[in-house]
Design a protein that fits this description.
single chain, alpha/beta, five-stranded mixed β-sheet, 16 helices
């Protein structure tokens, strides 16, 4: 083989290699590096079904996000994880952003996408009641939620709405940790208890309690649970926040257009110890009362209703203007697109 032929053959091999490399880089099927986003959720609950749908149906990955989810029980602990840098995004009650702001934070926590728009708790009676009326609570022992949290504040708001003074006409118990409230009721504490799902439905199925009312139906629309992040993170990662919000919106629309059974099956990986039938019942209950927001926009009326409830409970440190702690820019953008 002469020198010219050797050179031509070598050049051909190099050209083929470079063309193949370029083709691999331009191949739309070539996996792109996903951007990591860490969520800290305040509790693991079917109430947050759209979030789990976004994970199981691949909506976050479609947006180029690699999302990790950690449960950090308690709003104060969830907010600490966010503020300290242990999480990028928190899923927690919007009231926590007001508490942080009132403490004079230089980097306020901003609500950018609403997930649930009603309270998610139910009133459970130890005894079966065929014709329940709120009046029947007077003089009983009521096992409520922790002071300062949205469940407790909504609970008191609803009780007062029905003419019951929770601190004078009930034996109100609020000193039990959130994670142990259900166990306390199961062990015999209280005539009535305020519970989240699926615990309320599980108790009913097992005959340990009976759902008699919904706090969500009674309290109206509030930004009960929202995705929030620090103002600094939002400014530095606008594209990420918009992608995140778009994935949540896709999940909200998916939940709105699918049956309770389909939703239950979709979120089942996050509730391996919960019976599918119970999960379907819970999802249907939340869907029927409009608990799942169908878009991520947190409305000003909802924000004001939240502060009214906090004020009624004596837990509002100060009134905060809607635009100070709520940014709907990303939610509005993904809906338009």
């Amino acid at each position: 083989m002469n020198k010219r032929l050797k050179f031509s053959f070598s050049f051909l091999l190099i050209a083929i290699f470079l063309f193949g490399l370029a083709a691999c880089n331009n191949n739309p099927e070539t996996p792109k590096k996903l951007e990591k986003v860490r969520i800290a959720e305040v509790t693991r609950s079917i109430f947050y079904a759209p979030q789990y749908v976004a994970l199981t149906q691949g909506f976050f990955k479609e947006e180029g996000l690699d999302v990790t989810l950690t449960t950090v029980p308690g709003g104060d602990k969830t907010m600490t994880a966010l503020i300290s840098g242990g999480a990028d995004v928190a899923l927690v009650g919007s009231e926590t952003s007001i508490y942080v702001y009132a403490q004079g934070s230089n980097d306020p926590v901003i609500n950018f996408a609403q997930l649930t728009q009603t309270d998610g708790t139910f009133l459970v009676s130890r005894e079966k009641i065929d014709n329940f009326s709120w009046e029947q609570l007077k003089g009983t022992t009521f096992l409520g939620q922790r002071t300062g949290g949205m469940p407790q504040m909504v609970g008191e708001f609803v009780l007062k709405k029905h003419g019951i003074d929770p601190h004078n006409e009930l034996n109100l118990i609020q000193n039990i940790d959130f994670a142990n409230i259900a166990n306390a009721f199961a062990s015999g504490t209280g005539d009535f208890v305020q519970l989240f799902e699926p615990t309320a439905s599980i108790f009913e199925k097992e005959g340990r309690g009976y759902i008699v009312a919904s706090f969500g139906k009674e309290s109206g629309h509030v930004p009960y649970t929202s995705f929030m992040t620090k103002e600094s993170f939002m400014k530095e990662n606008k594209d990420t926040v918009e992608k995140f919000t778009r994935a949540i919106y896709k999940a909200q629309q998916w939940v709105d257009s699918h049956s309770a059974e389909e939703i239950a099956k979709a979120v089942e990986p996050y509730f391996p110890d919960t019976d599918l039938e119970i999960m379907t019942t819970v999802v249907e209950r939340y869907k029927s009362q409009g608990s799942f927001a169908t878009d991520p926009i947190l409305e000003e009326e909802e924000w004001n209703n939240l502060q009214n409830i906090m004020d009624e409970a004596g837990q509002l440190p100060q009134r905060v203007d809607y635009k100070t702690l709520v940014d709907t820019t990303f939610a509005e953008s993904v809906i338009k697109k």
